[in-house]
Every structure is written in C-alpha cells, then in structure tokens.
Write a structure and sequence with these properties.
The protein is α/β, with parallel strands linked by helices. The chain has helices at about 15-20, 25-30, 65-75, 95-105, 120-125, 180-200, 210-215, and strands at about 45, 50-60, 80-95, 110-115, 130-135, 145, 150-155, 155-160, 165, 170-175. The chain has one domain: Glucose Oxidase, domain 1 (3-Layer(bba) Sandwich). The longest helix is centred in the C-terminal third of the chain and has 23 residues, at about 180-200.
Length: about 230
C-alpha cells in the first residue's frame, strides 16, 4: 500500500457507537457545543435513514470514484464511508450496484459530499445514504486519491475512526476521543427536553430564558415584560 492508503487506524469502540446511536444527531451536536454538524446540503435520501459508526474516510477527485471502490475493499463491517467528493454534483459517484455491494460487505452507511444516482432504487434498498445531491451521469475511475486520511467534508474535519451519527436532520461527527464524555450530556439533554415538553403539555409555554435574553439584547428594560 502507498502512503496515500492507510489501512489501519483506531476506531471509536462498538460499545460507544451503540450508545451514541440512541441519540438524535441534533442532541449530540447541541452537547458538543453546537459543533460537528456537516453542512445541510448533505442529507439523507429518505428521512427515515439513520446510521452510526466509525468514519472510514475517502478523498476523491471530483467526478471520479476509483478510491471509493478501493475503500469498499478495505472497510470493516460497521464502518461508515465518509467521502470528500468536493461537493461536485456533475457526476454520480455511487449508485445501486455499489450501494448493494456496501450492504453485502456489512458497511453501515455512506456519507458523501457529492452526487449519487439510482435514487429511487437506493431508497427502496433502505441502506443509509447521505449525499449532497443526485445526477444521472456516471463517474470516471482513473484518478488517484487517498484513504484513511483526514478529510474536510461539509465544513467539518473528519478523521478516520471518528464517530458518525446521521439521521433525518443531517450528519454529526465527533472526534473519537470525546465521544464517551458526550454521552452523559446527551442523556441529560434528552431528560431535560422531556421535562420541558411535559410542562408545555400542561400549558406552561413560557420560555424562562426569554426575558433575560431580551434584556441582555437591550430590547427590554429591567422590570419590563412582553
């Protein structure tokens, strides 16, 4: 293997992946300081799609999927292919054949800053695919890239082995070293939100932070209310 292809790297543990999979991407992003969410252009082909797993990073040139084929041969079951396609939508980098092979290989899902095709068939497969768009054009298979190196995708740096959690709202990524520390924060936020929803159901729709925030912003004087 050349230095452009890194086969072995540390991954977030399966136990932490299972725990993180219990939470929405939005919950994890919030407790991560509202950081780690990829740009909204990268979304699920169908809203019910969800995936969690360690990132298997792939860097390709626009319109060429040679390195994705190589990555599929190297990825481990449970990995999520995270592909920096440079946001190019002029040609699809994956379609039904490749995604069907991913499912057979045990790959957990695909996140791609680029285009896919055969979108209706992919939706029927139910395999989690998060892409920037679709295009009927096919790719070339000629240009080298890199595997197992950090990539920049959707405005976020993703390292191999980092946690990926994606759902209808989008894609969240966290450095593998901090995942364990996020989990109790995520549980507390879920509990707090459940308590707030119960209050709303009982008629208490007032947000306790609103008046202080308006005063801080200079929109209300001390003692004033809406």
């Amino acid at each position: 293997m050349t230095q452009d292809i890194v086969r072995d790297f540390d991954r977030v543990s399966p136990a932490l992946v299972r725990q993180a999979a219990e939470y929405q991407a939005a919950i994890l992003a919030d407790v991560n300081g509202r950081r780690g969410a990829l740009h909204g252009r990268i979304g699920a082909l169908r809203p019910e799609m969800k995936v969690a797993g360690p990132a298997f990073t792939v860097d390709v040139r626009p319109g060429d999927n040679l390195m994705i084929h190589a990555a599929m041969a190297l990825a481990k079951p449970g990995d999520v292919l995270v592909i920096d396609g440079k946001g190019d939508l002029t040609a699809a980098l994956m379609g039904t054949i490749m995604i069907t092979a991913c499912r057979k290989l045990g790959i957990a899902g695909v996140v791609i800053d680029g285009a896919v095709r055969d979108s209706l068939e992919l939706a029927e497969l139910g395999f989690p695919v998060f892409a920037a768009g679709t295009n009927p054009n096919g790719p070339t298979k000629n240009v080298p890239g890199r595997i197992g190196h950090p990539v920049s995708i959707g405005g976020v740096t993703v390292r191999p082995g980092d946690l990926v959690v994606a759902d209808a709202d989008g894609v969240f990524v966290a450095a593998r070293e901090i995942v364990e520390s996020l989990l109790p924060l995520a549980r507390k936020k879920v509990d707090d939100e459940a308590a707030r929803l119960a209050q709303i159901a009982q008629g208490n729709t007032h947000s306790p932070w609103l008046l202080p925030a308006l005063r801080t912003a200079g929109l209300l004087k001390d003692g004033e209310t809406l």
